[in-house]
Model the fold of this input.
Amino acid sequence: MPSTTLQKKPSDRTSGKLFEFQAQLPRLPVPSLDETLPKYLKTLEPLLSKEKLAKTKKTVEEFAQSAQGKELQRRLEARASEPGRVNWLAEWWNDLSYMGYRDPVVPYVSYFYAYKDDKLRREPTKRAAAIVRAAWEFRRQVSTGELAPEMARTTPLCSYSYNYMFNATRIPVKPSDYEATYDLATNERITVVRNNQFFDLQLVHDGQLLSAAEIESQLDRIVEVADSDTAVPVGILTSDNRDLWADNYKLLSEASPKNAEILEKIQSSAFLLCLDNTRPVTREEYHRTYWHGDGSNRWFDKSLQFIVCDNGKAGFLGEHSSMDGTPTCRMNDYVLDQTLNNKVDLGNGAVRAGLPAPEQLRFVTPPPVVRAIEEAGNRFKSVVDQHQLRVLQYEGFGKDEIKKLGFSPDGFVQMAIQLGYFKLYGQSRATYEAAATRKFAHGRTETCRSVSNESVEFCESFENPLLSAGEKVAALQAAVKAHGSYAKACSDGKGVDRHLLGLRLSLKPGEEKPAIFQDPAYAESSHWYLSTSQLSSEHFEGWGFSEVVPDGYGVAYTIRKDSVIFHIAAMKNKFGLNSDHLAHLVKEALGEMRLAVVAAKLSETAAKPKL
Done:
């Protein structure tokens, strides 16, 4: 039986190498109004007309001098200094952006990684068994604390979110969900799902971890049982609007005491292993498989889901609420390094006799539950069908070449996205790039506003046929430099978006909202027409997530040594977005940018006097 001991909020661990710097991490700072407000105005300059900017500037200056502005700043600073409060933003952010967010987690919240093929293990259960062994070793290192903490050069990063990696799940509740974590030592099990049927697989037998051969044997048994039967796809319920899922969660759990036990087993297991009966081939096919699949062979509330298809393709789906991408990127990179490079400890090759069969978890599904499942399935299909996707595998160059050209790889790719969008729409619009703030205790992200005066000038320069390569490159260099400067400020806790949010949330019920937050520029400048983020591994065939506004794109990108992979998602609606066109123009932009830099270098060399 699973442990019934769960925690909604794990305490800060300080033991073990993973958490050795935890108690020393600084708190997320509260910038001064004098720091944030001028910076905020600067980010508005490339987005607003001169008339609108003048009005907004007056509004912002009035807020800076007002008693209300100073009082909100005082309240926020007081909140940040409260004894026992680790991070002034964390609870607000987790509720507003995740737990209180009621749209479906898939496709709108969760993110996925696409794995490179494993040439050593083409059979699905063999590959799955190796993935499980590698993930279990990473889990062991997290559990003991012997895993080294992540570092940004010499600066340690917060390890708190590792508490939510294994044996964790999101629980649907109105009006706001919560994350439950379970004891790792007493729940040495995983949940396997095949053909919409769930199985509880114990990974330790007689005190010994199952070998890869034994795991493969158990998975083969699961496939044989599941493929000879059918089941109502209960997992589709987790794909629904969170309020509807909360209602149906109660309906499901109260339909039978057995259902409540099954829910507990799934929720307390280390992670989910999804054995899909699909055979995706194209990039779009397997990106969609890992991003959302058919909605049925999943349990979208679980923190970690490893997905293996019948043709050996594999990937990962992460529930975003309590963990950002960097820890899971690290874990998945470890799993792939171990398996693809044949480093993984597979254990003894023999299969012990008498291994207990995996326990099939059969939900009781009376007519009201079946009806709820059918309705959830219809809603899932409607949401997924509204989305378009294009995966761009750009193989012209990658990180190594960008560095040789003298640029930051992330800044260079961000400007390619800007130029591609500019080519498509003839203007620059508000762009979000996730910037990590994990150098602070319980830090998560800040918004790097990628559009600047310099980025707009860069786009205009590259679209101007009268300018020389040198002039274009000078504009590119200025844009990348401005991007890097703002990104660093964000990682230092000195962006504008989280501070402004904190000031707004410091209002008490019934108090008048300051004009700065009623100003249209506030909403317009945070309406993310482009929501972008980079996570990179040489072992990934890309990663992805959705757009965040109906008239915007979600652009996830992976910068490898010799290539860049873009996952470009958008809705199919009245706004006429086109992921294919944006992908084509980003590719065009990358080529033009490299050619300009090379041409400028050649021109510079030719202009030098010969000795």
